[in-house]
Amino acid sequence: MFHREIPVFLFTGFLESGKTTFILDTLSQDYFATGERTLIIACEEGEKEYDTEMLRKKNAYVEYIENKEDISAKLLASWNASHKPRRVLIEYNGMWPVEDILEDVYPDNWVLTQVISMVDYTTFNMYWTNMRSMVIDQLSMSDMVIFNRCDGTTGRNDLRRCIKVFNKKAQIAYDWVDGFDGNALPETLPFNVDAPVITIEDDDYGIWYMDAMENSNKYAGKTVNYNCIFFRPQGYPMNQFVPGRFAMTCCADDITYLALVCKTANDVDLDDRQWINITAEIKVEYVRDYHDMGPVLYLKDIKTAEKPEDDLVYF
Predict the structure, then answer these.
(1) For strand 262-263 and strand 240-241, is the pairing parallel, antiparallel, or unpaired?
(2) The pTM is what?
């Protein structure tokens, strides 16, 4: 018998981190407000409460779990049978181990689709300093981490580094306090664009690549150094290749090769997928493969390199 898969969206975060508000806002968005029956499982009650009458108008229903010991496959199966949801949103208690709400307690047709973590920027440092293991437990499996209540003091690059140390795949977003335009803040990058040689660390390749493609004139005349894979597409001359990295842009089925064209004074003959370290000057030129103007590498130095422990690029 065919069972339709029910997507499960798991929201983690400490009390008052904004989980309920985010869920309610999501239910109001056109892309989500499609009329499908939604079951919300709330594992804590914060300052913001669910209005059951309002939820019914959206074909949404809420059930509560007060104690983590109550989480069981039997309980979730009973709600699956009584509500017959088409999607499930779980507002999880930030003080409970995340492993208690993973797939082994879900009905067979429930599929954990996305883990979204809400973080109150104003209290993050306190939790990070005093309860770091709990923070890591929450955020280590997140697909997206949203820092809310951000303001002009927010160090986006520092926050990003905190998360990427233990969760390289997580996307990171920022929600600003009312009246503050976060887009007006200067973009911070995890490398020094003004250095004589811009050194790109393995974990920063994706950020550098996107910035170079979007703001190529900023890098014109600059010299960069980084580790990458050697690759020469069929038909390329021996004095050109396209060094790059494979990136997971959203899931394991969506792997993309991010690379720039590289030109050399002498022929280079290496095995494809060999790890190399290159130093090159960037010029901005029209490239057929880009279908536009873009950064082109002019090789200064090349040598073999070690494959990183994790060879994928994450965003």
Answers:
(1) antiparallel
(2) 0.66
